[in-house]
DNA sequence: GATGTCAAAGGGGCAC
DNA sequence: GTGCCCCTTTGACATC
């Protein structure tokens, strides 16, 4: 069992390199065929060759390893087309570990493939072109979903931090009011506030008629908005 | 049996 | 019109 896993791992590593090669070809705008010949990495090759050379007891393993080279589908007693021709009912296809690993490796390099690449990959994996296409679509959807979850978590933390900050500022404001204005009833404070304005540059309270109320209020809003924005950016949330 | 996962199907939108 | 992608839904299978 361990031997099998070693072969599979080696196979995946080899594929990673070949995928990069394929992309290079694509960049040259001259894609004849995806070069996915499943050339094993040196370690994988070594193990396959060893397996082939050993005595009869290990001959079975050698056959398995050689089987991996062409990635034959375990259900491939029948043609791949038979996967979906079960009296009209959909038969769930479970991709083999090797197929999944290969697809994953390629996906890591390129999340989308052109038709030629898909066809080549489908042939190599003994799948239909459509299956490879669908797999990549589903894989992109899973990636997007995961990213959405991450983003959501991030925004949730942002929200929590801002709520905390809001609470803190409210408390601070209350304390300052208590210190400066004293235990005046709230409605009086509010009525005073309507007559006070705030200097747009120094943000200090001005006496009545010392500034334009409308402009001051909009400046306060703008300043608060900018402060909030800065705190988000600088705070790393 | 409820739930989760994932391959597959189908439809809409878009670019060519 | 065709081909591709995205999104949603469906259905088979696995896990608990």
UniProtKB/TrEMBL annotation:
<feature type="region of interest" description="Disordered">
    <location>
        <begin position="71"/>
        <end position="95"/>
    </location>
</feature>
<dbReference type="GO" id="GO:0000981">
    <property type="term" value="F:DNA-binding transcription factor activity, RNA polymerase II-specific"/>
</dbReference>
<dbReference type="InterPro" id="IPR009057">
    <property type="entry name" value="Homeodomain-like_sf"/>
</dbReference>
<dbReference type="InterPro" id="IPR001356">
    <property type="entry name" value="HD"/>
</dbReference>
<keyword id="KW-0238">DNA-binding</keyword>
<feature type="coiled-coil region">
    <location>
        <begin position="145"/>
        <end position="179"/>
    </location>
</feature>
<keyword id="KW-0804">Transcription</keyword>
<feature type="DNA-binding region" description="Homeobox">
    <location>
        <begin position="88"/>
        <end position="147"/>
    </location>
</feature>
<keyword id="KW-0539">Nucleus</keyword>
<protein>
    <recommendedName>
        <fullName>Homeobox domain-containing protein</fullName>
    </recommendedName>
</protein>
<dbReference type="InterPro" id="IPR003106">
    <property type="entry name" value="Leu_zip_homeo"/>
</dbReference>
<feature type="domain" description="Homeobox">
    <location>
        <begin position="86"/>
        <end position="146"/>
    </location>
</feature>
<dbReference type="GO" id="GO:0005634">
    <property type="term" value="C:nucleus"/>
</dbReference>
<keyword id="KW-0175">Coiled coil</keyword>
<comment type="similarity">
    <text>Belongs to the HD-ZIP homeobox family. Class II subfamily.</text>
</comment>
<dbReference type="Pfam" id="PF00046">
    <property type="entry name" value="Homeodomain"/>
</dbReference>
<keyword id="KW-0805">Transcription regulation</keyword>
<dbReference type="GO" id="GO:0043565">
    <property type="term" value="F:sequence-specific DNA binding"/>
</dbReference>
<dbReference type="InterPro" id="IPR017970">
    <property type="entry name" value="Homeobox_CS"/>
</dbReference>
<dbReference type="Pfam" id="PF02183">
    <property type="entry name" value="HALZ"/>
</dbReference>
<dbReference type="InterPro" id="IPR050762">
    <property type="entry name" value="HD-ZIP_Homeobox_LZ_Class_II"/>
</dbReference>
<keyword id="KW-0371">Homeobox</keyword>
């Amino acid at each position: 069992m361990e031997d099998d896993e070693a072969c599979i791992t080696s196979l995946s590593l080899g594929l990673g390199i070949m995928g990069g090669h394929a992309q290079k070809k694509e960049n040259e705008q001259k894609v004849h065929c995806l070069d996915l010949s499943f050339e094993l990495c040196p370690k994988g090759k070594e193990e396959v060759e060893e397996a082939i050379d050993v005595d009869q007891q290990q001959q079975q393993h050698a056959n398995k390893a050689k089987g991996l080279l062409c990635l034959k589908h375990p259900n491939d007693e029948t043609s791949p087309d038979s996967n979906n021709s079960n009296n009209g009912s959909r038969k769930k296809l479970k991709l083999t570990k090797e197929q999944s690993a290969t697809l994953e490796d390629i996906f890591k390099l390129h999340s989308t493939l052109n038709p030629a690449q898909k066809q080549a990959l489908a042939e190599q994996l003994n799948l239909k072109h459509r299956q490879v296409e669908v797999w990549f679509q589903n894989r992109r959807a899973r990636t997007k979903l995961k990213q959405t979850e991450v983003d959501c978590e991030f925004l949730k933390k942002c929200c929590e931090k801002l709520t905390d900050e809001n609470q803190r500022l409210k408390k601070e404001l209350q304390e300052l009011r208590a210190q400066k204005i004293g235990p005046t009833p709230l409605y009086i404070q509010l009525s005073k506030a309507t007559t006070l304005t705030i200097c747009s540059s120094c943000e200090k309270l001005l006496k009545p008629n010392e500034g334009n109320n409308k402009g001051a209020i909009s400046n306060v809003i703008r300043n608060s908005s900018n402060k909030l924005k800065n705190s988000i950016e600088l705070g790393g949330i």
